[in-house]
Protein: Aminopeptidase N
Organism: Pseudoalteromonas ulvae
Amino acid sequence: MAAQAKYLKDYQPVDFTIDDISLTFDLFEQSTRVVAVSKVTRLNSSATQFVLDGVELTLVEVKINGQKTESYQCHAETMTLNVDEDSFELTIITEINPLKNTSLEGLYLSGGAYCTQCEAEGFRKITYFPDRPDVLATYEVKVIADCSFPFLLSNGNKVEEGELADGRHFTVWKDPYKKPCYLFALVAGDFDVLKDTFITQSGRTVELALFVDKGNLDKSEHAMTSLKQAMKWDEEVYGLEYDLDIYMIVAVDFFNMGAMENKGLNIFNSKCVLANQETATDKDYHTIESIIGHEYFHNWTGNRVTCRDWFQLSLKEGLTVFRDQEFSADLGSRALNRIAAVKVMRTHQFAEDSGPMSHPIRPEKVIEMNNFYTVTVYDKGAEVIRMIHTLLGKNGFRAGMDLYFARHDGQAVTCNDFVNAMSDASGVDLTQFKRWYSQSGTPELSVSDDYDATTETYSLTIKQHHPLTADQASKQNLHIPFAIQLLDEHGKVFALQNNGQAISNILNLTDSEHTFVFEDISQTPTPVLLEDFSAPCLLNYDYQTSQLITIVKHAHSEFSRWDAQQTLFTQLIKGAVLTKPNKLLSADVVQLIQDIIVDEKIEKELKAELLKLPTFETIAAQFKTVPIDDILLIVEQFESEIASEFSESFIALYRQQADHGAISAEAVGQRAIKSVCLYYIAKVDVSEGNELLINQFKSNNMTDVLAVLHAAVVSSHSLMHSFLSQFEQKWQKYVLVMDKWLAVNALIKQGDVIKHIQQLYQHPCFDIANPNRVRALVNSFTFFNTAFFHAKDGSGYQLLTDLLIQLNEINPQNASRLITPLMGWKRLDTVRQELIQSQLKRLVSLPNLSPDLYEKVVNALK
Ligand code: B3K
Ligand code: ZN
């Protein structure tokens, strides 16, 4: 039977709810007994059947008010209980097999420790329960296990513990806050613990505990520091205080996502916790800070106020991503954080929104909910919140958040409830704005302008256009905040005015076309358009190269400078794909790059960004049919020209960077510059450059070491093999670092690349059941080894599909995430289209295709 779709329009409140549940887990690897005692209340007096979800459970017994009953029916994924009381106690005893559970959803074993993952619909793999987020209950949990598992953890506060016979022991946990079952968590294992405390703004002391695999305490400090910073930030910016006496984080190796915000007991992928200078890059440090913050911020946006149904996922995810982005921006560089977020949008979200899985941030139709933890729901969702922030201003937004919590604390609500609180608190009309929640696709904004020197007026005409998407056949105009700045030739900003009245630099677009007129503009201005990426849109404006150079060199906004550089390089590459010139670098671009290299005022990390070309996807987005081979060729040519033109400048710039080996922003900036220099230096295999590579490879800092390894591999440098094997020798026992090695190996561009990757499947550190290992190797290949993944003999597509067929049985969620690079096949040339289609057909014909892959493959083949 094909998997069934669910629709937002069909939402119905529950007939029965569970207000309180007591769970007892008697943990055994292959047969864990779960006793669930629930207080059930009938909400709809005419209902006589209580339907509970349950998957892969062995049912032992059902009791109503303590009496064994047979008055139920079990179906494939539900149990229907016949009921004639308004409130009763329901006892359900089930058995589950954590060892066999490779889906990493429900209760499973990770490296010998028991742990759980219940979002979105994993609680049904633990016991029969109405597994939906609008059933809010208080939980008491008893965990029983062998004493070889010293730590037995669950949500809330520990209220009891003790010894039992046969070398077993137990703990009892009580969570005073009502929560949906997706926030339930249990962990049992042996760990090292980093402890700390945090004193809240009201003076309460909260215990903090970070549980890591034995021997990893030296890699846990950064996560703890990040947690304390997040707790403080949420108090300062939103007045939100933590509400339990203890906050626990457990790091596990087998995890499908980055982390999970279970109430009081976050479970993290170890890769998003563990870091020290030797083993983690500066980017890893940043990721850890942002994910620790993200999960902490969920305590209010997600846990205290949760989602009514899963279609509302962006209610908590879009908002929480926005909050974690602002947290990182306040802690570090606002511009760099914005650049990173916009890269994600342009590289991944735009592609998703123009492909077969296009969906609004509040989807309307879902087969497998796990397929909707997407860049659209998360990152475009965060952009939508950011636009609300822009429209309301800082104070209006804060008033909206305050009202949202005042109205909805302890409830399961909708995106509409959130937007209503925002508009009610601020008085800003968000009626048209709400369409962002229901409309998919990337809006296209076309801008034209006109300057009249005699009247000194400048007019800007902006049109919004909404291309149709796979999921929607009609589109409406959106309310788009369009930020601008007008610069003179030196980068000075013109005041915006009309009729003597100041005009805000945020223009409100609501119709298909608007013309804005600005007076007192003394010379043809250079417009900075969609400043700070004020709306998640594509922009069409016919920039002159000289205008872009003015912005890159003179704009005050660091983001705008980077953005103009991206536009400049993208335009250059796009033009070259069509004309195939012998030389790409014109004199003015050479001058610009040289100026950037020597400019000592530019912040270092920004300088590094300004010296990189746009991502493949950013360039590909410029074409209806993506000319893969041409883009690769031109990018390669462009980079080689930069590398040889500036080879001495890069070496000089490199030598200016002192080696600090620390975590300060300055040190991070220096490493970023050294990395970009080495990237170009490695392309010119000369002895002076090679010396730099060899020296930096000896560093004790992973950012430095990985930069060398990456530069050597992608340039097929003569030192590549030596570096790879030295790295492997040194780190073979530490899997998280070996993930970096796997990822770099997947970028090799020489010899039989497919065979090389197949051989890596056999490497002692590789484990197909571990999502980190698989993603490190395979995503790196499919996303970044573009030439070989898209090889015209189809071998790259086949390699991925072979793996998906295996993973379909082992871990469908992971399989479904890895299929992304095959989804956009309609935008490729006909040869590749056919090759991918034939692989998708292999998948669709599998007898046991999981709902996860089914939903994607069927959409892709439509
Ligand atoms: N809420 C979790 C993600 C759950 C994934 C379910 N497949 C992590 C987060 O967004 O914070
Ligand atoms: Zn989240």
In short: The first strand starts at residue 6 and ends at 7. Residues 15-190 form a domain with the Immunoglobulin-like fold (CATH 2.60.40.1730).
